[in-house]
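It is worth pausing here to work through a concrete case rather than discussing structure prediction in the abstract. The textbook approach is simple: state the sequence, then state the predicted structure, then interpret. We follow exactly that order.
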Amino acid sequence: MTLAPSPALLLRDVRPWGAAAVDVLVQGERIAAIGAGLPVPPGAAVEEGGGALLLPGLVEGHTHLDKTLWGLPWYRNEVGTRLIDRIDNERAFRHASGHDAAAQSLALARAFLATGTTRIRTHVDVDTQAGLKHLEGVLRTRDAMAPWQQIQTVAFPQSGLLVRPGTAELLDAALAAGADVLGGLDPCAIDGDPVRSLDVLFGIAAKHGKPLDIHLHEPGAMGAFSLGLILDRTEALGLQGRVAISHGFCLGDLAAAECNALLARMAALGVVLVTSAPPSRSVPPLMACRAAGVTVLGGNDGIRDTWTPYGTPDMLERAMLIGLRYNLRRDDEIDIALDGVTRAAALGCGFADHGLVPGSRADLVLVDAQSVAHAVVARPARRLVVARGAVVAREGVLRPGLPGERAHGTA
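Step two, the predicted structure:
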């Protein structure tokens, strides 16, 4: 059994973004019309909204589908506290356990879809021990879920680029094999030669015409130096609007004047910032970023893996955690947290046709909430999820007909 869009679908009495109640007509994969009292086309399916809140499909801007242990027995975490400890431990664990990135990424992608996440950017480890094994697994998930969920893959050198000779060639092969984005990692702290590291990285991206998404965990002055080099190359190579900085912890360490100068450059170059708003690190100043014109989007980072036992595939929860980390209390401030996993995330990742206007892709999430802020704080079950015009989930349970249901159940 397979799922496909109905010839027409009418959602009656729903409140887009919490506004006045309207009807939403979906035809094929697109929103065809929004308005009060829309007529029911012949043969259309009708869903009664009962005044529920309507959101566009949620967007996960930064996760690691290939790493997750979602649905597997509990992993006892006894890893050291340094970044390199976690990197080395994970690589050894996955090699020894025969970790199946295809099965695990599919399990997590399904769980994301059940909670209304229809677009995902996932970083996938590429290194000299595993080669392209993990990427190949996630590409299978990307293709299997493509009728309902758009997944971008980032070829990510988690173990470093220069410090593991042969990684550059593997990243080149990963982009040739179908990875959508080139990832990078801490050119000072991991590679120890930021100029050469970034030259190699940007050279690979330029060869394939791919955007970049660079993990920058480096703190303070070190991170600011690396960020400056990244911005220099973005400008010199004409990559405006094609570069993302994930984490950017250094921006939370800097004096306001230095931080604001970097934010101004980022805004001018269209460099976006991705945050998981972790409680244990300095975080970029959200309101200052937005005031400067920097697009800020949110993501979970790892979910239930060897790095962390925390995280769930629910972007309303991630919006809530962003709100908590940034002390967002007013309703209009909490709206900003949701923006980071909807509009801003779609914009920052380059996911087209996202939104609640005619012509947008019909990715729709219906929840029982009085307002956007209420939805973020209460995180109610998703009453209905529509993906590319097809009803794919009710009350958080996926309908039959999606890949992986035999192995992972329907939720």
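Step three, interpretation. The chain has two domains: 9-56+355-397, 58-349. Residues 407-411 have pLDDT under 50 and may be disordered.
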